[in-house]
């Protein structure tokens, strides 16, 4: 039986996990699993139904009526919510804030983690999120904790939004990032933290290419270690 390889990338909001994981997956010919997109799709479901992130009973009930799946078209991940492709609707600040706030609820996490584990058992994957190395893929072959200062992360997000023609405030974006960091690190279920065997990469002063090259090198070192 061919060995299946899993790479887990965790880290705070805006650290560049999705960009890095997607590019590294392409170079390795692995499947990229954007768990954040799955949580965002669930958050969109809650927003559409007028549900507050603090209403745990309503959240738990709504989860049962939400079907979130990932499909790949020409190698590009598409996020499907109840049969609708919502890939272009889940990248707003409102959805991101709801995803962070709602992910504290166990019912949300259980629903999505089951799908994530199933994908990783079948395919060579790079999966990024908040609790991949600690909870979803505790036996991953390589674990990365990717971070950057809150200001650097805010600046990256600011430029991204400006390029899309959206009006935004750098200071407000940084405040939102700091708030989301606190929520993610202090939630009761599967809080964001660096796994004990994860490699810490601070990308504050690294280019995306430098981060990707470092991850590819670490993975090759892991594989070489297995053979020796």
UniProtKB/TrEMBL annotation:
<protein>
    <recommendedName>
        <fullName>Cytidylate kinase</fullName>
        <ecNumber>2.7.4.25</ecNumber>
    </recommendedName>
</protein>
<dbReference type="GO" id="GO:0016301">
    <property type="term" value="F:kinase activity"/>
</dbReference>
<dbReference type="Pfam" id="PF02224">
    <property type="entry name" value="Cytidylate_kin"/>
</dbReference>
<keyword id="KW-0808">Transferase</keyword>
<keyword id="KW-0963">Cytoplasm</keyword>
<dbReference type="InterPro" id="IPR011994">
    <property type="entry name" value="Cytidylate_kinase_dom"/>
</dbReference>
<feature type="domain" description="Cytidylate kinase">
    <location>
        <begin position="7"/>
        <end position="219"/>
    </location>
</feature>
<keyword id="KW-0547">Nucleotide-binding</keyword>
<dbReference type="InterPro" id="IPR003136">
    <property type="entry name" value="Cytidylate_kin"/>
</dbReference>
<keyword id="KW-0067">ATP-binding</keyword>
<keyword id="KW-0418">Kinase</keyword>
<comment type="similarity">
    <text>Belongs to the cytidylate kinase family. Type 1 subfamily.</text>
</comment>
<feature type="binding site">
    <location>
        <begin position="11"/>
        <end position="19"/>
    </location>
    <ligand>
        <name>ATP</name>
    </ligand>
</feature>
<dbReference type="InterPro" id="IPR027417">
    <property type="entry name" value="P-loop_NTPase"/>
</dbReference>
């Amino acid at each position: 039986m061919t060995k299946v390889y899993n790479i887990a990338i965790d880290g705070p909001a805006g650290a560049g996990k999705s960009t890095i994981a997607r590019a590294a997956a392409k170079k390795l010919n692995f499947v990229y699993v954007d768990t954040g997109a799955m949580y965002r799709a669930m958050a969109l479901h809650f927003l559409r139904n007028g549900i507050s992130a603090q209403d745990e009973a309503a959240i738990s009930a709504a989860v049962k009526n939400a079907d979130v799946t990932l499909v790949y078209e020409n190698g590009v991940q598409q996020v499907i919510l109840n049969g609708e492709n919502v890939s272009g609707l889940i990248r707003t600040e409102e959805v991101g804030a709801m995803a962070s706030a709602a992910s504290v609820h166990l019912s949300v996490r259980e629903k999505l983690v089951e799908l994530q584990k199933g994908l990783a058992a079948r395919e060579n994957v790079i999966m990024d999120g908040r609790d991949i190395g600690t909870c979803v893929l505790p036996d991953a072959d390589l674990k990365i904790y990717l971070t950057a200062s809150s200001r650097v992360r805010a600046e990256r997000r600011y430029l991204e939004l400006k390029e899309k023609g959206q009006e935004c405030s750098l200071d407000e974006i940084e405040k939102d990032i700091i708030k989301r960091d606190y929520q993610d690190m202090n939630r009761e279920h599967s809080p964001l933290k660096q796994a004990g065997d994860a490699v810490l990469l601070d990308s504050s002063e690294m280019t995306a290419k430098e981060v990707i090259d470092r991850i590819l090198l670490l993975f090759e070192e892991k594989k070489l270690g297995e053979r020796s």
